[in-house]
Amino acid sequence: MRFLLENLKIYRKEAILAPALKMLEAFFDLFVPLVTADIINNGIAGGNAEYIWIRTGLLILLGIFGLAASITAQYFAAKAAIGASASMRKGLFRHIESFGFGELDALGTGTLITRMTSDINQVQNGINLFLRLFLRSPFIVFGSVIMAFTISIPAAVCLLIAVPLLSLVIFGIMKLTRPRYRRTQEALDGVTTQVRENLTGVRVVRAFGREKSETEIFRSRNHLLTQKQLVAGRISALMNPMTFVLVNLALIAILKTGAAEIQLGNLAQGNVVALVNYLSQILIELVKLANLIVTVTRALASADRVQGVIDRKPVMQYGRALPDPDGVPVNVPAVVFDHVSLTYPGAGAESLSDIHFSAKIGSSIGVIGGTGSGKSSLVNLIPRFYDASKGSVRVFGRDVREYEKKALHGCVAVVLQKAQLFSGTIRSNLIMGRPDATDEELWEALRAAQADEIVKHKARGLDEPVEQGGRNFSGGQKQRLTIARALIAQPQILILDDAASALDYATDAALRKALRELPGNRTVFIVSQRASSVMACDEILVLDEGRIAEHGTHQELLRADGIYRDIYMSQFRKAGAAG
Amino acid sequence: MTKNNRKRLPRKEQRAAFKRLLGTLRPYRLYIAVSLLAAAVSVAGQLLIPIETGRAIDQMLGKSGVNFPMIGKILLLIGLYIGLSAFAQWILGICNNRAAFHVARDLRDRCMEKIGHLPLSYLDTHPTGDLVSRVIADVELLSDGLLMGFTQFFSGILTIVGTLFFMLVVNWVIALVVICVTPLSLLVAAFIAKKTFRYFHDQSEARGGETALVSEHIDGMKVIHAFGWEEKSQAAFEQVDEELEKRALKATFYSSLTNPSTRFVNSVVYAGVVLAGSLNAILGGSITVGRLSIFLSYANQYTKPFNEISGVITEMQNALACASRIFEFLDAEEEVPDKADARVFAGHPEGQVLPAGSGGSSPVSDPNGNVPAIILDGHVALTNVAFRYVPETPLIERFSLEVRPGQRVAIVGPTGCGKTTLINLLMRFYDVNKGSIRVSGVDIRDVQRRSLRASYGMVLQDTWLKAGTIAENIAYGCPDAGREQIVAAAKEARAHGFICRLPNGYDTVIAEDGGQLSQGEKQLLCIARVMLSLPPMLILDEATSSIDTRTEMKIQEAFARMMQGRTSFIVAHRLSTIREADVILVMRDGHIVEQGNHDELLAAGGFYARLYNAQFEGMAI
After folding, report:
1. Which is nearest to B165 in space by CA: B20, B36, B11, B44?
2. First and final CA of chain B: distance in angstroms?
3. Total count of domains within chain B
4. Chain B partners of A385 at a C-beta cutoff of 8 Å?
5. How far apart, in whole angstroms, are the C-alpha atoms of residue B585 and residue A13?
6. Can you list the residues of chain A whose pLDDT is less than 50?
7. How far does the CA of residue A575 sit from the closest CA of chain B (Å)?
C-alpha cells in the first residue's frame, strides 16, 4: 500500500481532480429529479409551455455539464492510474535489480514476473475505478436522501431506512460469497492439475495401468467443484430478488406516505415522481459501489503482494574497495577460501562445509563431484553471488565483502550453467561486460570459445538478431556464445560453471585448449561432472556432500584411489586402463 | 487464452455446435424450461410495477383529492407483483446455476473420459496447454456465456418487447420519442468501441512486449548481475514501459468515454420525454402525471437491455466457439479398443504375478474365463515392422529383431534415429503400420493393452511425477504397497538418502511435476517407482541421464540385479551404460545398421566403433 501511495503521489493533482469532478457530475445528476418535479408541478399544472421549454433546456444543460465534468474526470483518473502503475513497474523493476541471488532464489522468477505484470495491472484497474467512483457513488446515495428530505420529511425517512437495509443485503451477500468463490477457485485448480497431469504423464499413467483410478480422482474433484459452485451460486442468487423486494417495498412506502402528504396538501404529484426517481438512483449506485469494492479488494491484494516484494530488502551490502591501482598484485593468491561454510537460508543442512584452499594467480582449478555435491555453490561464492555463512572468501588478498560490486564483478566473470542470451543482436549480447570492445576482440573471443563458426554462418554476422531468450540458437551454440561473452569482459578470474555440458567431447577439448593458449595471466575455474574436462587442470578439487573430499592433480588423484578414480573409471574404464 | 485468438465461427458451424449443445442440455431441459418461464414472469413483474406506480400517482390529484381505497388496491397489486417477480428471479437464478454447473461438470467428465481413450498420436501432437484450456477454460466460458447468456438474452428481448408494447399502449407520441432517440446511445457506444479497438490492440501489443522483456530480464537477472548490466537493463525496461503507458492511457481514456456519452444520450431521452409529455399534457393530450412517470422510469431502463443484449451476443458467439472446440476434442478418433477376445499375460518365468492395480480380475484367467491366459516367457519378436508418425516421412522400415527371454538389448544411435519410437511400439503407445510385434509368440494387438503394459517396467528420460507425497509417487504402480516395501524400493534406487533429507521424509508433498526436486532426484524416484512394481520386462529410456556417474554406477548394480532374468530394452547415450548389454542395436534412420555385443562391434570397426572412438578421443585429450 505504501509503495502504491508513493507512486500515486506523483499524480496528486489528477488523483484529486478526478474524484472531485466526478462529484460535480453527481451534483448535476441530483438536480434532475428536482427540475422534473418543478416541470410537473408548475409547468403542467400552470399550463405554461414556455416554462416547460426553459426547464427542459435546463435538463439538457445539466446533462452537458455532467458530460463535460465526467469526461475530464475520466481523463484524470486514467492518467493517474496508468501513470502511477507505470511508475510502480519502474520502481519494482529497479528494486528487483537490486536483489542478490539469495532474494532471487527465494522469490522465484515466476512470482516476480507475475508481480511485475498482472498484479500491477490489477492495481491499475483498481485505482482507475476507485478514483471514478469512491466519491461519486456515496455522494449520490447520501445526496439523494438529503434531496428527498428537502421534498418531504416522512417520505425521506422511507429512503433513510431503505439505504442501510439495501447496503446490508448487497454487502452481506458479497461478504458471504467471497470465501466460497475462493474455495470454488481452489477446487477448479485441483481439477486443472488433474487434467494437466494426465496429459503430461500419459505414458506413465498408461504404463502403470492407472487410467481408471486417475479418472476416478478426476471425477471426485470435478463433482466437488460443482458442489462448491452450487453452494456459492445459491447464495449469490439471493442478491437480485432481495434487492428487488427491498427497493419496491420502499417504493410502496413512498407512495403511501406521498399519498398521505398530498392529501394534507404538503406535497404535489411531481414531488412523488422525483422521490421515486431518487430511489432508483440509489439502487444503481449501490450496485456500482459493490462492484467497486470487489475490484478494489482485488487490487489491494495485488498491491500487498507487490509491497511484499518491495519490503524485501537485499541483504547483501557492498564495500568500497576498488581493485589495486597498480594492476593485479603478484604476490597474493587469486582466490582463497578460508574455512568457508555455506548454509542457504531456510535449508536444514550446510551445502558447503569447511572449504579451505587457495588458487595461485594464473592457475587452473577443476571442481568435480556428483549431483548436489556443492560444486556450483563453491564457485558462486567467488563473485559473491552468495555470502559465506562461516569463514571468508578472499580475492587478490581482500575479503570479497570489502569490494565495491562493480569492481568485484569486473575482475570475476562467470559463465553460468544455464546459458542465457537476451534479445538484441549477437554483438549486443557479447559486449555486455565491456561495451567498448572492438570487432577484432569479439572475433578473438569467439574463436577461443569455438563460436566463430556459429557467427560466420549467420547472414548478418555479429549483427544477427537474437530472439527472446536466444531461442533461435541451440543449447550448445548458446553455451559457446556465453563463454565468448565472458572472455570479452577480460576478467582476471574466469569461472566456467558446467558451461560446456551441451558440447560434445571434441569441442569441449578444443575449447579448453584455446582457453589455455589465450594471452594474459588468467585464473580459471572449471566446474564439471566430466573427468575429461578437469583432468588437465593444475589442481582438482573433488567435492562430496559439500566437503572437499580430495584434491591434487589428475595423476595424484588417480593414485589416491578415491572418489575421483571412481568417477574417472565410471566414465571411461578403457581409457583409464590404457593410459 | 486472450480474446484475440478466439475466432468467430462461420454461421453454419455455429448452428451445428448449437445443435450438439442442445443434446448436452437434454438432461437439464426441465431446469431450462423453468428458468425461461421464470424469466418471463420476472420481466412481466418488473414492467408492471412502473405502470401501477403511475396509476397510483394519478390517484393523488392534490389536497383532499387522494383516492385512498383505490391506492390501497394498487399498492396491494404492486406487492403481489413484487412477490411474484422476486420469487421468479430467485427460481431463475437457482435453475440457471443448476443447469450451467451440471452441464459443465458433465462436459468435463466426458473430456476426461475421452483423454483416457485417445491414442498417444493425438496427445503427442496436441499441445498440453491447448487441451487443458479446452477442458477447463472453454467449458467454463461455455457454461457461463451460453447458459447465463441465454436467459439474459431471453429476458432482454422480453423487456424490450414488453416496454415497447406498454409505451405504445400508454401514449404512442412519447413512445416514438423514446424509440427514436434511444438507439442513439447504442450508436454512440458502437462508435466508441470501434474507435478504441485499435487502441486496445496497440495496448495489448505493448503489454505483450513488456511481458516478454520482463520475463527475459528477470529470468536472466543473474547474468545481468554478473556483467553489471543493471543500468542498461533498467533503461531498456523504462523505454518499453513508457510506450505502454502512452498506449494504455489512450486505450483506457477513449474506452471510458462510453459511459458518460451513453449517459448523456439517456439524459437527452429523459428530457425529451419530459418535454413531449408535459407539452402533450397542457395541450390536452391523454397524458397524466402518473403516465409521465411510467415513461420516465421506462426511459431510464430502456437502454439497459439493449446494452446487455449486445454484450450477451458476443459472449454467446464466444461460447459457441468454445463449444465447437470442446466437441471437436470429443469427436477426436479414439484408439482402437482391445479386441473382445483380447488375452492377458499370466505370470513370469520366475513365477511372479502381475503387480496389483491390474483391476479386480485375476490376471491369471480372463474375466470370462473363455480365453486362456498367455504364459509370459519374455520372448519378444519384431517382424518386418514399418512405422511412420506422418504418412509422408518414413521412419522405421522393415525392422526385424528377435529377443530371447532374459536378454539385455541396448539401443544406440544419433538423435532422431528411432530409439524412442521403438519404445512407443513395444508399449503399444502406437500401433505398427506393417509387420507385427509378438511377445511370447502372441501378437500384441491380440493382448489387452493393460496387461501388455503391466508386463513392462518403464523409466523414461522425461521424469513425470504426480502432485502428492513421495511415498504415493513411489507406490504409483502398486498403490497397496506398504511403507517397508516403499522404503526398500527407494533404497534400491539410491533415493532413500535424499528422501530422508526432505522436510517430511517420505510424506513430503511434492508439487505438480516434481517442483522443488532436481532432475536427478526426480529420476531416482522414477527408478524407485519401477523397482517397487518389478514387472517381468524392462524399458529404460535414458533412465539415468541426469544422475551423476558415480550414483549411476550404484544404480546400475541395482538395475543389473533387476535385469537378471528379465528381458530389457535400454536406450542410452552413455556408452558406459551400454557396454554390458547382450545385444547392442545400432540404429540410424530407422534401420538397424549394426547388431552385436560391444567387443564384436568394436572389432567390426563400423558406425558403433566410430561413435565410441569419437567420445573416447575427446576424453583422452
Report:
1. B44
2. 52
3. 2
4. 222, 225-226
5. 77
6. 574-579
7. 7
pLDDT of A404-431, one tens digit each? 888 888 889 989 878 888 988 999 999 9
The CATH code belonging to domain A2-311 is: 1.20.1560.10
Is B256 in contact with A109 (Cβ distance < 8 A)? Answer: no
Q: Which CATH architecture is the domain A335-575 placed in?
A: 3-Layer(aba) Sandwich (3.40)
The pLDDT confidence band at residue B375, using thresholds 50, 70 and 90, is confident
Task: Give the span between the Cα atoms of B60 and B51, in whole angstroms.
Answer: 15
Q: Which residue in A117, A155, A380 sits closest to A273, CA to CA?
A: A155
ipTM over 0.90: no
The domain containing residue B126 runs over which residues? 17-330
- How near does any CA of chain A get to the CA of B12, in Å? 31
Please write the tens of the pLDDT for every residue from A270-289: 899 899 889 888 888 888 88
- Contact assessment for residue A143 and residue A27, using Cβ atoms and an 8 Å cutoff: yes
Kindly tell me if the per-residue pLDDT of B519 is higher than 50.
yes
- For strands A390-395 and A398-399, give the pairing: antiparallel
User: In angstroms, rounded to a whole number, what is the distance separating the alpha carbons of residues B134 and B131?
Assistant: 5
Return the closest-CA partner of residue A218 out of A187, A195, A240, A184.
A195
Q: Which residue has the cell 578470474?
A: A493
In this complex, the residue of A191, A204, A252 whose CB is nearest that of residue B75 is A252
Q: Testing the interface with A: which of B1, B112, B185, B540 to mutate, by most A Cβ within 10 A?
A: B112
Residues 314-343 of A with CB under 8 A from B: none
**pTM of the predicted protein model:** 0.77
Q: Which three cell numbers stand for residue A367?
A: 571442481
Q: For residue A417, how many C-alpha atoms fall within 13 Å in the half-sphere facing its CB? A: 9
Strand-pair category, A493-497 with A412-415: parallel
Candidates A458, A435, A455, A436; CA nearest to A446 is A455
| Residue B423, domain member (yes or no) | yes
Over its C-alpha atoms, chain B yields an Rg (Å, rounded) of 36
Judge if B50 and B185 occupy the same domain.
yes
What are the cell numbers at A348? 536444514
d(CA B348, CA B356): 14
